[in-house]
User: Fold Cytochrome P450 from Gossypium stocksii.
Amino acid sequence: MKIEEILIYSLLWALILWVATKVITSTHKNHPPSPLALPILGHLHLLKEPLHRTLFTLSQKHGHIFSLKLGSRFLVVVSSPSSVQECFTKNDIVLANRPRFIMGKYVGYNYTTLGLGPYGDHWRNLRRLSTIEIFSSTRLNMSLDIRRDEVSRLLRRLYQVSADGFAKVELKSVFSELTFNIIMRMMAGKRYYGDEATQNSDEGRRFRKMIKELFELAVSSYPGDFLPILQLVDYDGYIKRIKDLGSKTDELMQGMIHEHRSNKGDLNIKNTMITHLLSMQESQPEYYTDEIIKGLIQVILNAGTDTTAITLEWAMSNLLNNPHVLEKARAELDKLVGQEKLVEEADVAKLPYLQSIISETLRLYPAAPLLVPHSASEICSIGGYEIPKDAIVMVNAWAIQRDPKLWDDALSFKPERFEEGKEMSDQIYKLMPFGLGRRACPGMVLAQHVLGLTLGALIQCFEWERVSEKKIDMTEGQGLTMPKVQPLEAMCKASQLGKKLVSEVVWD
Ligand code: HEM
Assistant:
């Protein structure tokens, strides 16, 4: 026998043995059901965008708890309220970890940030710290003026083009700039989007470039996360790109910290998150390091901007496709807020229909359709199946929130379903746009303030129409936060009330 033949035979035998071992071990282990896997790749070839739709199709065939082998990693997908309940009650602590993807090493301070860090003392401290310094009602009240100011700038911008009649406006970038400016002002006292002065500053340009790269890289999935051997060769330069991005973001945020240190006492930055954290650094320097502060800025930028902006875009798209809902919301605002003032964040609590519009938007178009991946810190069980240690666990919230077994007329946009507490009693495990359990979104209240205030003000101040008879295309594009495939454009015209409110009053 020639040496090549011996080699081929040995390889074949190794492959047969590998497949046999896999079949025997997986059948013995009572793992959740799974499609037939390819050697080495497993089910990687099945993953097509948008991922939540692919996983939904697989769940139709393999059940509400199924598993996939993604190269060297094990993924479990749950798509029913009962399995979600198990994840976030008896397994909540075990599943409170996050899986590690290489991006988190170079751009997420070696997996030490609030969003990426493992469950434990460090994460608990970050969570407590961010609750006190950013998300508490005291801090949210202190930053109320920032949100009012940014929304009133948005209203003026739209008013300028639409005071004399209907004008076409592109809303995707308008909402994105709104949320970035709100978050950056709350954290660092900075506006990087909008007026000319901001547009032209070198720092602003660097920031916008960094954000663009960050979001582009975050969207692309990296095969080396599932086939680690690829990391050794960095075949497409991905690791080099994320290392460069990591250094650039670090440099920019370090600059903000230096600026805060040298401008202590400046009124513009008196109440920013960085100022508060630096004062804590003075008393406990070993814990409140610059790295912790930079990690927090970064997580909040990533988690708190696009999510809210995209939800605003979906909500307005739904209103344009359902003019009767828009009119009902306007009537509610007229009745409960009146004709003399702009809606305030505090008013939103007494506007049930506006809140129902937000809930219904988040039900059909959750900004994080698969939540954020969890990881099992030890073996656990879901639905009687064994979930191995380090398995990635994903919740298909999108599928549950559209399940016709759980919702009447599931695919129609009907805010009325949430009115007067209808659907409220049993909805905890069937409506979870902000996640559940220990790792649930800490920014929920802030997000709801921004959503309620912005939508309320847009409805009060403008008339809205579609750019043509055709309904707005509601197809989802590719991306972490379920964007619309077509950025939203609409026709807007300042209403009588809008003319009065925007030109005279706005907020003091
Ligand atoms: C409509 C807007 C938003 C939606 C739909 C949303 C949704 C979510 C979801 C689903 C998770 C993951 C939950 C899980 O692990 O199961 C999450 C985590 C997180 N969100 Fe939000 N979010 C929004 C806005 C915000 C805002 C405004 C902020 C901050 C300003 C924020 C900060 C965070 C952080 C820091 C985490 C990570 C928490 C952790 O890992 O411990 N989010 N969000």
Observations:
- The chain is about 50% helix and 5% strand.
- The longest helix spans residues 3-28.
- The first strand starts at residue 65 and ends at 70.
